[in-house]
Amino acid sequence: MLAAEGGGEGGMWEAIKHNPTFLIANLVVSAVVVTIIIERTAFQLGRYRVNSKEFFAQVKKLVAAGNIDRAIKLCDASDYPILQLVKAGLTHANKGADEIDAALSEKLSELKPAVEKRIGALWSLANIATLIGLIGTVSGLINTFASIAAQGLSQADKQRMLSNGIAEAMYNTAFGLAIAVVCMIAHVLLHTRSKNIQHDLESTTERVFNLLTISSKPGY
């Protein structure tokens, strides 16, 4: 480590070179975090970019006109989850309310877990990164104090080694905390978005069920 060599300019790179274990561990954690954030963001923005209200309005017109087949074909235009959820109800339109409800509920139960997938892991990764950083700091301080206890060092050398060693150790804490902050911000944003998506799925399920059951009643 820097202190053990009696010099060094400090800096993140120097810290990695001289005591890489915990900083590299947190680099791995940060890579996992970035991967999850990118994958989840792409999933939410890509798979759920359909305006469910506008799409349902189109389906409602077709169903009201008795064009169930055209409504199903409209759902087949893409594999977006909202479209497949509506299709699950439409394919049972000529059956009873219980069967329609069962089909919608089954499809909804397939879609919802994917929306929340891996988002909760960000919270755990925030804690892991923080703890790795703290362990790295403690380890760095132990090594620093052990080094300055060596015989034959001048007071100036000891002070310089102590300063460099503490700075090096603190990089572990700073890096771990930085990862944790990113994890928490991403968790809040992605979790909020996933709740909105789940609410939209549930609302769409209810709209489709009401449309198919109410429109099938005499007088509607």
TrEMBL record:
<dbReference type="InterPro" id="IPR002898">
    <property type="entry name" value="MotA_ExbB_proton_chnl"/>
</dbReference>
<keyword id="KW-0813">Transport</keyword>
<feature type="transmembrane region" description="Helical">
    <location>
        <begin position="122"/>
        <end position="149"/>
    </location>
</feature>
<keyword id="KW-1003">Cell membrane</keyword>
<comment type="similarity">
    <text>Belongs to the exbB/tolQ family.</text>
</comment>
<feature type="transmembrane region" description="Helical">
    <location>
        <begin position="20"/>
        <end position="38"/>
    </location>
</feature>
<keyword id="KW-0812">Transmembrane</keyword>
<feature type="transmembrane region" description="Helical">
    <location>
        <begin position="169"/>
        <end position="190"/>
    </location>
</feature>
<keyword id="KW-0472">Membrane</keyword>
<keyword id="KW-0653">Protein transport</keyword>
<dbReference type="InterPro" id="IPR050790">
    <property type="entry name" value="ExbB/TolQ_transport"/>
</dbReference>
<protein>
    <submittedName>
        <fullName>MotA/TolQ/ExbB proton channel family protein</fullName>
    </submittedName>
</protein>
<feature type="domain" description="MotA/TolQ/ExbB proton channel">
    <location>
        <begin position="82"/>
        <end position="202"/>
    </location>
</feature>
<keyword id="KW-1133">Transmembrane helix</keyword>
<dbReference type="Pfam" id="PF01618">
    <property type="entry name" value="MotA_ExbB"/>
</dbReference>
